[in-house]
Amino acid sequence: MRGPHNIWRLIRTGATFERTGAMGAALDAMNAPARIRMAAHVLGWPFAWLGYKGDPALPPVTRAITALGPAYIKFGQILSTRPDVVGPELAEQLSMLQDRLPPFPQDQALAIIAEALGQPVDALFDEFSEPVAAASIAQVHRARRADNGREVAVKVLRPSVEADFRRDIDAFHFAAGMIERISPATRRLRPRDVVTHFETVVTGELDLRREASAASEFAENTREDKGMRVPRPHWHLSARRVLTSDWAEGTPLGDVAALRAAGHDLPALAARVLQLFLQHALRDGFFHADMHQGNLKVGADGDVIMYDFGIMGEIDEYTRRVYAEILMGFIRRDYMRVARVHFEAGYVPRDRDMAEFARALRAVGEPIFGADASRISMANLLAYLFEVTERFGMRTRTELILLQRTMVVVEGVARSLDPQMNMWEAARPVVENYIRDNLGPKAAVRDLARSAQVLSRYAPLLPEFLERRMPEMLREPDSRSEDARGKRGGLLAGMAAGAFIALVSVAIGVWLA
């Protein structure tokens, strides 16, 4: 029954956009070609009566998205940070999806908290407000702890949010499979893997204990970072459906007029938001992956306050180095360097021509760098780069989806504060610092030291391994065979490598001493 159920869900999605008038508004905002508009209306009009009605008080696109549920709201939140894609008017309408959705009833929230924490709310908090913010996953209440009087934010999951997400994710999986079957060329983009990745992210967001853990780790990683703050979780007042954390007092980053009236330096704030994101992604490999305006405030002292850690991104050290090299190559307009990094990382098949790939990358970068600051867009670069990599057979890197998506969102946030911001100049110092610290001579020594530490852990096992395996290798009856020679060669090479690393580790130990 999953197939019919999902077909029905996708039909109702298109029908809801048609019924609410969102179809035309969305196509107008994105300047869709006339034939696309015609096709959308011809396919949607007969089914319009099947669509959800939504809240007539809301603008059409917001009305349709909120009627369709939390997974669609998440997508709308991303678009709200991209006025250059959907237009300023639609971006403003979608901004309400960040934290101004209709809340669910107070008595339901109180019941969820009491069940999750094992005590009535009156016993835990002296004060407990009506919802102060409501988004797709949860709503937030302002409260005061009964034991110490501290002000806290209490986040409570929506009652039926898990079931709603499961329904939509199921439909997304079905749609991705249909796309791959109908258009084999799309398999390179791995749509099913992309949906699986999105499902993993969302599933983590629905367990507030994981968000508390992420907030705690993120706070530890960034405790020395200047110009930012992270509210810490209160563990004994948190559970799977409830999260209590420090109250973050500040001006929402999306309220540009209020920030300007308070005397904040908007261009400096824009640069700081971008630089903080890159710093966390490159230095820590653990970054806030939902950095829209609804999750950011500015304190009275000018600090950027980050909260809502339901979606976090993580990339390994090797991928961080590759990403930094690619960014720096574009910043310095060294397209051969960018091409070489793609080939060395295995992102582009080795049977392709590296010089031709570098020339294609130049065609991506030069028009952007030739534009004025307001048109230098990482989002545009990613879009053009996508076209080039498609031509050269590069497969979608699912481990970079969150990183790239967050980069686009962060750019949108920064542009809302400073439309004239030069993204590359703002990114340059962070990327250069990372490369200096992680790709230079000191980094090479540090990598050798780590290799020596790993070898030292296995060193006690090495004599036994050699005593057991070496006689077997020497007694091979088919010792003249290519396979046996290969095995012996591999073993000897491993021994040589181990001896080399051991000698290097001794030298490093003496040098560090």
TrEMBL record:
Pfam families given in the database record: ABC1
Keywords attached to this entry: ATP-binding, Cell inner membrane, Cell membrane, Kinase, Membrane, Nucleotide-binding, Transferase, Transmembrane, Transmembrane helix, Ubiquinone biosynthesis
Domain of life: Bacteria
Domain ABC1 atypical kinase-like: 97-341
Listed transmembrane segments: 490-512
Keyword Membrane: yes
CDD domains given in the database record: UbiB
Pathway info: Cofactor biosynthesis; ubiquinone biosynthesis [regulation]
Protein family: Belongs to the protein kinase superfamily. ADCK protein kinase family.
PANTHER family: CHAPERONE-ACTIVITY OF BC1 COMPLEX CABC1 -RELATED, PROTEIN ACTIVITY OF BC1 COMPLEX KINASE 7, CHLOROPLASTIC
Protein name per the record: 2-polyprenylphenol 6-hydroxylase
UniProt organism field: Paracoccus broussonetiae
